[in-house]
Specification:
Layout: H1 28-35, H2 39-48, E1 54-55, E2 61-62, H3 65-79, H4 85-128
Antiparallel strand pairs: 1-2
Helix pairs in contact: 1-2, 1-3
C-alpha cells in the first residue's frame, strides 16, 4: 500500500512492524527534506495549527507520513492555488470535519442496519411461535348481507 504523498513499499519505504502512515517517526529535518520545505517552515505551520506532529517525551516533533502528505498539500495550495495560510487552515479544518461526518454516517448506517436486522429476526421468531391450532380456520367463505329493520 502506498502511503500519503506516494511514500510506501512501492517507493522503497516499508513500515516498521506495528506502524502505519499515522505513526510519528520522522524528526523535523527528515520531514523537511521529504516535504521539500525548510524546517523553520514546518515549525511555523505547527504554531499555526496547520500540521500538528506528534511529540516525544522531551517535546521534540515527530512527523508521520500523513503529516508529510499534509505538508505537501499545504505547499501546493499555497504555491499553485494562491491560497493564504488562513484559507489553508480553513480548508484543512473543513476536510477534517467532512471526514468525521462521513465516518459518523457510516457508523450510524451500520447501527441502523443492525437494528433493522435484529427487528426482522425478532419478528420472525414471534411469527414462528404462533400456535396455529388455537384458532380454527375455515376453508370456506360466506357472504352475509345485513339489512336492519327500519322502524317507522
Amino acid at each position: 500500500m502506498t502511503g500519503p504523498g506516494g511514500i510506501g513499499p512501492e517507493m522503497g519505504f516499508a513500515f516498521p512492524p506495528g506502524s502505519n502512515e499515522d505513526t510519528p517517526m520522522f524528526v523535523i529535518s527528515v520531514a523537511a527534506q521529504l516535504s521539500g520545505l525548510h524546517a523553520q517552515t514546518l515549525r511555523s505551520y505547527d504554531r499555526l495549527g496547520l500540521v500538528s506532529p506528534g511529540r516525544t517525551a522531551a517535546g521534540g516533533r515527530r512527523y508521520s507520513l500523513r503529516d508529510i502528505a499534509l505538508l505537501r498539500e499545504v505547499q501546493r495550495l499555497s504555491q499553485e492555488e494562491g491560497v493564504n495560510l488562513a484559507g489553508i487552515k480553513r480548508i484543512i479544518d473543513l476536510e477534517n470535519q467532512v471526514d468525521a461526518l462521513q465516518a459518523k454516517v457510516t457508523e450510524l448506517t451500520e447501527e441502523v442496519a443492525a437494528a433493522y436486522a435484529a427487528a426482522e429476526s425478532a419478528a420472525a421468531q414471534i411469527h414462528a411461535s404462533y400456535r396455529r391450532d388455537l384458532v380454527p380456520v375455515r376453508e370456506e367463505t360466506a357472504l352475509v348481507v345485513w339489512k336492519p329493520n327500519r322502524k317507522r
